[in-house]
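Service request form, structural biology core

Requester: graduate student, group of Dr. S.
Request type: structure prediction, single chain
Budget code: on file
Notes: please return the result as structure tokens.

Sequence provided:
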Amino acid sequence: MSLYLSRLILNANHPQAKSEAMHPYELHRTICKAFENPEEARILFRADADRPGEVHVIVQSLVAPEWDRVIAKDGYITDKDEPKQVELTGLRAGLPLRFRLRCRPSKRVGEPGSPDVGKRKSLKDKDEIFDWLHRKGEESGFEVKDVGFDRVYWYESREGKQEKPLGAVQFDGVLIVTDPDKLREAVRNGIGPQKAYGFGLLSLAPLDS
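Core staff response, request fulfilled:
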């Protein structure tokens, strides 16, 4: 299974980057411009702001992006890494790896008679959030060994949506591979809902990196 990983480095002080930081669906639309057929590319992405003045946008796709297709005002993109092909052939049961996952732990409202039945509701309780991650890990071929999370907030930017802060979380920790094939599929497909908002990308790295 081949994947492509690439990175855009954005100027965090640029007006477009500022807007996209709060409205990740706008960033998704920008990224899609780099692909002739975004649906076939199966894009997953995450915008990390770990360094002052920079936003590092990690992009995973099934086909290589062409970043020259992205037209933006001067100063928006400060640098970029060209796509690197990744095979994930080194995964094996028992292997410990560092991971990062930004996602929206949630459940669908199912109470009969509720006006919100069928709608997705974010989990806010700490224990519920960790339980959600452990369940996803069991489904996705890994066991969570050590993890912490930070709450992150974003805004819906599709037409007609109310402008109010919505909650998500970012997990950082260590996992143990239990089923390499399932884990490869989880990396390929992402974990959790709302991929177009920068959620679901499961980033893996050796413990010593």
